[in-house]
Specification:
The structure is a single chain. This protein is mostly helical. The chain has 2 domains: 34 residues, no CATH class; 146 residues, no CATH class. It contains 7 helices and no strands. Helix 2 crosses helix 6, helix 3 packs across helix 4 and helix 4 packs antiparallel against helix 6. The radius of gyration is 24 Å and the shape is flat. The model has no long low-confidence stretch (mean pLDDT 87).
Length: 183
């Protein structure tokens, strides 16, 4: 048992250590009470930018879907309809993500779009081993595919599906309005 006297100036080290050791817990409590619902905002903004940029490229570009082979059931739609649907989703969903409106719905829709994009555009054309597949886990296509970035987007979207839109969102505001109406 340590007997530290607060009047002894040589015994300030234990209380200083205690204060320093308490900082992570205090920071954690502060983040829990003030910033916990903000984390999804950053994911929403990043994903809105990335998907919005892709949507604007499609909106102002030529349809290159015609020479692609889509997986079932997307292959049942024409290349022009697939192009229009992808472009529309990549324009509308980012606006909804920025607002935090129907975040889980639009995140799920973008997840489906991303899975199709990985399968059609980013997956390696040929791979015969896990090592060969792993070469496609890249940002730039060196002939092995390039599914790293869309996979990262997919995981961010999964996070939004699980967490929701967070505190700074239309979804949260609508939820608080429903609670006040229902008492």
């Amino acid at each position: 048992m340590n007997d530290y006297s607060s009047s002894d100036p040589d015994c300030t080290t234990p209380s200083t250590i205690d204060r320093v050791c308490a900082v992570p817990g205090e920071l954690s409590r502060w983040f829990d009470s003030h910033a916990q619902g903000l984390a999804p905002l950053f994911l929403r903004l990043l994903l809105a930018y990335e998907f919005g940029e892709a949507g604007l490229e499609k909106l102002n570009g030529d349809n290159w879907f015609a020479d692609r082979v889509f997986p079932f059931p997307v292959n049942l739609l024409s290349a022009d309809l697939n192009w229009t649907l992808a472009t529309g989703l990549e324009i509308i969903a980012p606006a909804a993500l920025i607002l935090g409106l129907a975040t889980r719905f639009f995140s799920l829709a973008l997840m489906l779009l991303t899975i199709v994009a990985i399968a059609v555009v980013h997956w390696p054309a040929e791979w015969h081993s896990v090592a060969g597949l792993w070469k496609g886990y890249a940002i730039s296509d060196q002939g092995y595919g390039n599914y790293k970035l869309p996979l990262m987007y997919l995981l961010m979207l999964v996070s939004l599906v699980f967490s929701g839109s967070g505190r700074l969102s239309v979804d949260a505001w609508l939820g608080s309005q429903r609670q006040s109406v229902n008492g």
